[in-house]
Amino acid sequence: MADKNTTAGRSVRDRLRERIRATRTSRWIRFTVVALIFIAWVAWLGSWWVLIFLPLLFDIYITGFIPFTWWKKSKSATVRTVMSWVDAIIYALILVYFIFTFVGQNYAIPSSSLEKTLLVGDYLWVNKMAYGPRVPMTPVHFPLVQNRMPIIDTKSYTEWPSWKYRRLKGLGQVERGDIVVFNFPKGDTVATKFMEDPRTYYDLVQQYGRNNVKANKQMFGDVIHVPVDRRQNYVKRAVGLPGDRLKIVADTIYINGEVIEAPKYVQHNYLYQFRNGGLTEKEWDDLGVSAEDRYTMTLTPADMEAVELNGFYIAPDGTVPPIYVSPLTQEMLSKLKANPALACVIKAPAYPVRLFPEGIDHGWTVSDYGEIWIPKKGATIRLDASTWPVYERVIRNYEGHHDAYLKDNIVYIDGKPADTYTFGMDYYFMMGDNRDNSSDSRFWGFVPEDHIVGKPWRVLVSFDKDKGLFNGKIRWDRIFRTANPDK
Questions:
Q1: Which contacts (CB < 8 Å, 24+ apart) does range 241-244 have?
Q2: How far apart, in whole angstroms, are the C-alpha atoms of residue 137 and residue 226?
Q3: Residue of 297, 328, 163, 300 whose CA lies nearest to 230
Q4: Distances from the Cα of 452 to the Cαs of 126, 165, 353, in angstroms?
Q5: Is 459 exposed, middle or buried (0-12, 13-18, 19+ CB in 10 A)?
Q6: Are 189 and 156 contacting, i.e. CB atoms less than 8 angstroms apart?
Q7: Are 329 and 287 in contact (CB under 8 A)?
Q8: Cβ-based neighbours of 223, under 8 Å, separated by 6 or more
Q9: If you average pLDDT over every residue of the chain, what do you get?
Q10: Is the pLDDT of residue 379 over 90?
Q11: Residue 237 bridge partners (DSSP)
């Protein structure tokens, strides 16, 4: 028995030596390059146990004991053809997985919250190395889909295995003014039929009641929890950094008591009117107002006094030409004022709406907001009835203390009374440049560091949905344009 084992052992060693000697120099070079890249990646990852896969690479390139390419020896031409395509597709998906996870990813701008800095229809390349790529929290997922598989409408990921948040070393940190892609923090719980709807699960609960949302699957679908890295991608500008105190007064942002400069293309809503009723399509295009931004006010007899008081034009026959509402940059506003047909233009008033933090009668608006302190890793705050509504979601949802609540003006964390709390992560306050039409931190609160995806680098291509293919559909002037023009 021992002799047989010795003979078998020598046979394996002999075969190994023969295959190594028979390996062409070109394959040794390819293996060396791939192995060095793999070892460098493992060092960057900081998980040296992953080196156990290095012998697998050696076998793929040099020894070939595992028959990965068995199909190449098949007598069937069909098998060889089909498997060559399968092999190419699997290789491409693995390559895409690693590039999208650790290097960067394409991203489409779906809304106008950053107009005119980034436009609806812009396709961006997002650099994940800018702030350091996250190690995937749901490592097993389909690499080309964010959370739901098209057509079959099922999850594009598995929740096992799941890894804790960890970020690899990047090229820098989030700076004030950076445009940042991140996972939507309030997208932790969703109704599957409203995943593309601007209303969150919490908005639906506010509108219809929690029990109705969970019970009526025909209308709302399933209510599911979504892991951090599978939540919808948002893109906004980082206005407030960890530890900052932020306040907005008359549309001017103050950080720690000092005014910060507004981005070049920041927009605010204005009411305006033309004596001749309106503009031609070319004039609208020259002004830069898209078709969906040409809102027309519906006036009632009760509005006539306000129309007159604000200086809007009333025709001799008592009719009022259309009054438009649009977001305008300062440059667009100057063009508008230069139009001789303009009758009146005023800043649209900001009305109180449901803003973060909820449950407080603060009377804030999108134009006059705060003051609010942004949590910083390692910083400690006092917990009481006044601070709890501001930081409740941070403590419960983002930092995992689900058994935390306020009772009889006492805060309990993990079932125990607590009068202070020390934050475990950094947080950011994000805002859109289309200030009066952006769903941002003013509405849903802070963005935790573990939700940060990356930094837009370039506009790859841009399509205008209001134009035809041969009538300006492709915005040629935006191709490969910087996605952070203010930096």
A1: 241/174, 241/175, 241/176, 241/374, 241/428, 241/429, 242/374, 242/375, 242/376, 242/377, 242/379, 242/426, 242/427, 242/428, 243/373, 243/374, 243/376, 243/379, 244/373, 244/374, 244/429
A2: 11
A3: 163
A4: 11, 11, 27
A5: buried
A6: no
A7: no
A8: 189, 190, 191, 192, 201, 213, 214
A9: 92
A10: yes
A11: 179, 431
Structure tokens at 105: 């990813």
pLDDT of residue 10: 61
Cα–Cα distance, 397 to 382 (Å, whole number): 19
User: Strand runs (DSSP E) across 263-331, as ranges?
Assistant: 268-274, 295-296, 323-328
Within 13 Å and on the Cβ side, how many CA atoms surround 486?
21
Rounded to whole angstroms, how far apart are CA atoms 135 and 104?
13
304 pLDDT exceeds 90?
Answer: no
Residues 6+ apart with CB under 8 A from 60: 66, 68
Of 226, 471, 243, 263, which is closest to residue 373 (Cα–Cα)?
243
Q: How far is CA 132 from CA 101, 120, 148, 160, 454, in A?
A: 11, 27, 26, 24, 8
Return the DSSP state at 262: P
Alpha-carbon span 458 to 127, nearest angstrom? 9
Helix ranges (DSSP H) in 103-244: 201-208, 210-215, 217-220
Residue 179: enclosing H or E segment and its boundaries? strand 179-183
- Position 8 scores a pLDDT of 53
Q: Write out pLDDT tens, residues 82-126.
A: 999 999 999 899 899 999 999 999 999 888 889 889 999 999 999
As a whole number, mean pLDDT of residues 169-182 equals 96
Q: How far apart are CA 457 and CA 485, in angstroms?
A: 10
Instruction: Give the residue from 472, 411, 424 showing the smallest Cα distance to 450.
Output: 424
Q: What is the pLDDT of residues 313-354, one digit of tens each?
A: 888 888 899 999 999 999 999 999 999 999 999 999 888 788
User: What local confidence, expressed as pLDDT, does residue 467 receive?
Assistant: 87
Give the number of C-alpha atoms closer than 13 A to the C-alpha of residue 128, restricted to the C-beta side: 22
For the beta sheet containing 323-328, the strands, ordered from the edge strand earlier in sequence to the opposite edge, are 295-296, 323-328, 268-274, 342-347
